[in-house]
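hey can u check if this looks right to u? its 628 residues, i copy pasted from the old doc so theres a chance i mangled smth
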Amino acid sequence: MNLISVQNLSCSQGVKTLFKDINFNINGGQKIALIGVNGCGKTTLLSMLANIAAEPHVAISTQSNLRIKYLAQVPVFNPEDTIITHLLSVDTPVVQIIKDYEQCLEQLENDKSSQTEKRLNEITAKMDMLNAWEYEARVSSVLNELDIHHLDQKMKTLSGGMIKKIALAQIFLQDMDLLILDEPTNHLDIKTIEWLENMLKRVNTTILMVTHDRYFLDKICNRILEIDQQKLFAYNGNYSTFLEQREFRYQNQQKEENNIRTVLRVELEWLKKSPKARSTKQKARKQRIAQMQNRNTFSKEQVMELGVEGRRLGKKILELKKVSKSFDHLNLINNFSYTFKQGEKIGIVGPNGSGKTTLLNIITQKIVPDSGEVDIGINTVFGYFDQHSMEFDLEKPIYEHIKDYGAFIQMHDGTTLSAAKLLERFLFDSSTLKTAIGKLSGGERRRLHLVCLLLDNPNFLLFDEPTNDLDIKTLSILEDFLLNFKGCLIIISHDRYFMDRVVDNLLVFEDSGDITKFAGGYTEYSQIKKELDKINKNQNISSKNKTNVNITETSSPQKGLNNKERQELKKLEFKIETLETEKKELERIFTNSNGTSEEYLIACKRIKEIKPLLDENLNRWECLVERA
């Protein structure tokens, strides 16, 4: 079923054309991703489709009564609203009838007239018809899954991650035919992203979204729309399939371009002979030559090179000595010590609000720890790319701004590059260099911020959610740069693909304020954590089913058991104690900062082997004890 049809849609902002004469359809059941470089018009296109009912467009036609829900990059809310007030601020029949019901109950306390009772009966009947009684359970389920509590908190007091979670909860509490999401994973922790993945797989709703999360794209999407050089290209399949299909398109377009150039060369040779254009055929031939010369030529995506000359690190880089930090009795970092070594690339993971950004702010001395010491090497120069774009003079042209960092840049191979050429490598076309910064998209400003950061030539980079608002193409090039970066690197990111590709080790933040080191990338950590959580969950269930008896202190000869069984009972006690001791020793490996991913996997495998042995021996021990 066709929900939306787009025919010959064009859009410009000032002198810049975003897309021209694009065509595509959105059909029921599709899960579509819209991709393209920052500034190509992705958010603009989503907004046009989301607001089509209020702002009709001649090039866009929709199914009648199409229910569209839109989650923008920055959720809109009243700062003074509480969480529950915001959740119920949507204008849907179910929410409206619930509000009427609550209002009528309040009125009934002061006015017990037959008219009020009649109105209550009418509302109750509508509640039955709309299944509104189940809505409260639905709300409770979604809020619990997202770990949203204390519904009386005001929206203005919440973090960006919590606001995004509440916006998602509000979306999924509504009925819809088409769900439009603009960067839905921004500001979310990985646990919530995985929840969102599962939710989008379950819902029977058509989805159109913009996201830079490549794992997310692979797991959710079955169709890709790409805006490239003002045109739109459609691909069936997930992101991995899209990469293969796009490369095939590039090859075909390059062949076509080469053929046109060959024909044009022959035609220009003919034109040099200056034939008299008396015949109709000769005039038509000249017109074809003019068309070929004025065509939009194909050029494969540009490659950005970020290899600026590196600044050397000293022997001492950075040492954290028993650092602790709390806010309002909330213990975020507890007695953390770490010495950074040359070339270390560390990722930081943990739930929202666990203290990840606080650690970066302590390292860069933006905030002071409650206790402990931050010892920074004399040659260490930080480059901090935080969650917010740097403040720009919005009236200043791009080129004028970048010149403040130098007219020429020294590259890693010894060559120099002009500021204008460097900007071109960062996808700022030469025709846009005089554009005021205020006219750039949010993603383009982030990209410009990144250029400025790297041109300062730091040797210790700190990235706090660097993937927010950057397009996939920029992220791929940034990843390549970071892989070859000789200095130290710390990354906080919810982008699992980015973390897996760039970092070697993880610092894992726990709710208690403890920070542990894990040797390996995020996927390895996630797999092992899931296995351990599963084992511990099963172990807890098993423990609840056992009586609280200390198996190491069983009294001497039990009545009701023969000699052979009493001997078996003693052996079981020893075997159970041995297995539990081994399990505890293996679990300690995961808190060892010097452990390797191979050691973790071996330990995890052995713990899985111990569990059934332990259960089997415990069950036999319980049987013997009950008979004693």
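Residues 157 and 624 are 58 Å apart (CA to CA).
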